[in-house]
Amino acid sequence: MAEFKIALNMEFCRSADKSFEEGVEIAAALGYRHIEPMVHTGWELLSEVGYFHSFSLEEDPLLMREICERHGVKVASLSAHSPLMKPEAAVPRLTRAMILASFVGTTIINSDEMLKPAWIDDDFAHEVMRYTLTKAELVARRHGMIVCIEPHGVYTKTAAGLRRIVELVPSPHIGVNWDTGNSFLAGLEDPYEGLESVAELVHHVHAKDISLDRAERDRGTVTGTPVGCACGDGVVDWERVLHILAPLDRELFLSVECGTIDEAERSLSFLRGLL
Q1: Which of the four pLDDT bands, split at 50, 70 and 90, describes residue 177?
Q2: CATH numeric code, 3-274
Q3: What CA–CA distance (Å, rounded) separates 93 from 24?
């Protein structure tokens, strides 16, 4: 049976203009014991001045571990979203994210296909993604990582499209990060039936709820959203999600993706009660 654990995606403090360490401190104070940091290459301006939570892959990997240990939290996964159809960006970002992960004690690297360039067709796009994931899988195999692709883009708005990308490189090191909110908003299929069809590939979950207003306004018009509302405040049937995933014999993090500190607090309370 699945061993469910709760984590907090660091996007919760983006609207509060908090730095990475401030965000970690707040997450710990709320009661979270695991987090999902966002990472980037280069020196991002807002992060450097302390207004954004993303962690630079140029930093010493042990710095992230040091900050987390200082506040009593662990890293559940890394949000290393990389444009799979742009390998010159995705390959180095995913590679360096996996190296960082090996220092901070996680094996889960999350991404999606991101944007499709207008100048390539569908077949070309999937061949480019095959190249990117082949390179990433080589690194994942060396470091014992799993690169998890989530529903968020033009190809992953259906479970079949998500499976097609994951199976471009058949490997236990390529899997699914199921996003409960994005799969609902895409609106092309029943999100629970979609989850059932890829459940054996799921190694991580973005616990994202969608408010009723947002569901009525946007469902079927978007492929995803950065954050949702507090878990339990929206339309997601959480008991059904857990029922589908429960037979999996692995640790599964439910990484809360919400937009405010208050929503993060309410999400933790709700999920603890549910579990």
Answers
A1: very high
A2: 3.20.20.150
A3: 22
Q: Determine the 3-state secondary structure of 243 from DSSP.
A: helix
User: CA torsion sign, 137 to 141 to 143 to 146?
Assistant: positive
> Order of strands, edge to edge, in the sheet holding 108-111?
74-75, 34-36, 3-9, 251-256, 202-207, 174-179, 146-149, 108-111, 78-79
Rounded to an integer, the average pLDDT of 85-100 is: 98
pLDDT band of residue 1 (cuts 50, 70, 90) is very high
Q: The whole model's pTM is what?
A: 0.96
Boundaries of every domain in the chain:
3-274
Query: What DSSP string describes 150-199?
Result: -S-SSSTTSHHHHHHHHTTS--TTEEEEEEHHHHHHH-SS-HHHHHHHHG
